[in-house]
Amino acid sequence: MQKTTFKLDAKASISLNSMLKRQVKKQLPLMTASMMGMTTQSARAVRKSDLVSVFVEATDAEKAARQVKNLGADEQLVPISENVLAARVSLDTVRDILKNKNVSRVQTKKKLDLHLDAAARDVGLIQATGTRTVSETGKGVLIGIVDSGFDLSHPMFRDSSGNLRVDGLLEQKDDQSAPTEYDNAQLTTGWGNGTNPGADPIGHGTHVASITGGTAYHGFEGIAPDARFLLVKTNFLDTTDGAKWIFNKAGTKPCVVNMSLGGHWGAHDGTSVDEIALDQISGPGKIIVASAGNEREWSLHVGGRFTPGQTETVPFTVLRSRNVPPQPPFAPMTFWYQQNDDFDISLISPTGQVMAIPAVGSTTQFSLSGVDIELSRQSYPASSSVQVQIVLSFRSANVSQLALQNWKIRIHCNTAVIGRIDGWVANSGMAIFSAHPLVEQARTVGMPATAKSVIAVASHTSKSAWNSDNGPQNDPGLVIGRSSSFSSLGPTRDGRQKPDLSAPGELLTAALASNSDFASELDRAVTADRLLTIEGTSMASPVVAGAVCLFLQKKKTLKPDDIRSILQATCRKDLHTGAMSWNPMYGYGKLDIKSAIDSI
Amino acid sequence: MSDPYSRLGNPEDVISALAMPLEGHSQDEIVEALRRHDVQDMSLLTPQVVSVRAPRRVLQDLESIARVEFKTPRSMHFR
């Protein structure tokens, strides 16, 4: 056996070393060459003129470019930052570059997964060859999206003839005046004359909707590209009214509504009026999918079982508003326990003032320096519970850090039949509990994902590299297939199994709304191509909503429980999920569209 | 106090809420009670649940016949 030894160049990436080696051996196969960004007319004979795309890291990129001599006509070296050159050069030129003392590293450009293909492969929708594994495309099914708005000038909302695929849009108003309804003709006119009804100043809704059903664009295709849309630009208060409008508009047609939003003001047990309303508007052919939430690491939940006489004191910090202009800090929170139990609960100010929560049926107010406080305790018969509300309203945005930190909740258990108490800050960004044994990552699935009929979706990683206006990006800390560190954990307060499943939500590339907040995120947006890469359970939920759209195409009358049974039976288990039938990170496992469709 | 979380805020603050009849009461009674207060901004979300926007004092009056839960803002789940 003949053995050949090559010396690896320490400055060159492994893939580049491999290419240099193969060039010497003249064994560079077509597939490998293509994958590494090379232009090869023939893989059997890689000539000096063959070009390779690389990034060159140098102490001075301009100087390094000038030092490369005798560039061929087609070779290019372009400084893209002070220290990085983008180059398309021959392998011989690469060898010269590697000899340059000014150069510290040369890496081949990888073909990035620019689009949803990583997610589509992850859920078993796209084969390695790029073809779909199922024949369903969403035809005849409606996708409803309740979100921040929609850039309907984006090609992903148009069919192959350029016509809008949107049958209707409801625009709710921030001042809660009567919403405005638009039909397809009005939307076509409005997006032609620049009035742009339902426009998306944030960019969230555009991204979400395109994941679910976007038309093929720059190699990306939504999960259900032949479905039609019913869209609600929401004021984030009347979200259930928005879902109801969508189902009304859908009439007898099958329809899935996606809600990539949520909150934590409520019992988290499916008994709120809002959740009951969602249960009642769902049914055969009318399915609601919601994001589980991104609150695993937000320290917004405390919970645990107490024994009589036990006292725990949990510190928390009120957070400053992220709004522009800044609003006064505001921290509402609720605590819940069973009515057979009895707890004394107090709020303690940073200066040590103790304010007791009043008896059931009572509300008290306190006015401290710079902050108003309202404390109440109410019976909650819907789940035989007691609800405690604590609301801190600072009077000014200009408040010292000392006034925001070192607040405490003191909980003392008098009677424990069950003895469990749970509390949540109303939403992320309002306050955080400090480290304490009662601070739990479990039970952070938000509402409405906790509703009984709603399919709740967690997120896992399907991609760690992406393209942007600032060049290729990657997050080396991400592990493909692992639950996203932010993805909220189940179960619900009443012990139900939520989330139902996990889908790719970490690093999804989809439609970018022009002139939106996201368009200025240069590490995330490719503005010329109108694409955006972001993460969240917001992105996982529309993947599942798109899948449900395909399920409904195959069987129009599926009910929420049917969908749950299908998912339970077909979700994929792997090394990350483990073999258990349900777990609080991944639910029943990872979405597998092909298996699910085959089971219907 | 800021609505919609407060129970003791300004009684004239107009609040969005969902109302569902308590046992022994009906959606019709809720609608009738709201009409008596000249509330126009309401819709029947389901055969049980009414979506309504009305002054806080009206909604608190309604609590004798309905579960009334103020709508609270939802957040988008992106990072």
Query: Termini separation of chain A (Å)?
Result: 55 Å
Question: Rg of chain A, please?
Answer: 28 Å
Number of helical segments with 4 or more residues of chain B: 2
Element-by-element helix/strand order of chain B: EHEEHEE
Structural class by SSE content of chain A? alpha+beta
What count of helical segments of chain A does DSSP give? 13
Average pLDDT level of chain A = 90
Mean pLDDT of chain B: 92
Straight-line distance between termini of chain B: 29 Å
Low-pLDDT runs of 5+ residues of chain A are 26-49, 110-115
Rg over C-alpha atoms of chain B, rounded to the nearest angstrom = 13 Å
Low confidence ranges of chain B: none
Strand content of chain B: 25-35%
Number of strands of chain A: 29
Estimate the global geometry of chain B from the Cα principal axes: globular
Largest sheet of chain B: 4 strands, antiparallel
Structural class of chain B: alpha+beta
What general outline of chain A do the C-alpha atoms trace? Answer: globular
Strand order of the largest sheet of chain B: 2-3-1-4
Outline the secondary-structure elements:
The complex is a heterodimer of chains A (600) and B (79).
Chain A: H1 14-25, H2 30-35, E1 51-58, H3 61-67, E2 76-79, E3 84-90, H4 91-99, E4 103-108, H5 117-122, E5 142-147, E6 166-171, E7 180-183, H6 184-193, H7 204-213, E8 228-233, H8 239-250, E9 255-259, E10 261-262, H9 273-281, E11 286-291, E12 301-305, E13 311-318, E14 330-338, E15 342-348, E16 354-356, E17 362-368, E18 371-380, E19 385-394, H10 401-404, E20 407-415, E21 420-425, E22 431-433, E23 455-461, E24 465-466, E25 473-474, E26 501-506, E27 508-511, E28 525-526, E29 531-534, H11 537-554, H12 560-570, H13 593-599
Chain B: E1 14-21, H1 27-36, E2 42-44, E3 50-55, H2 56-62, E4 66-70, E5 75-76
Antiparallel strand pairs in B: 1-3, 1-4, 2-3
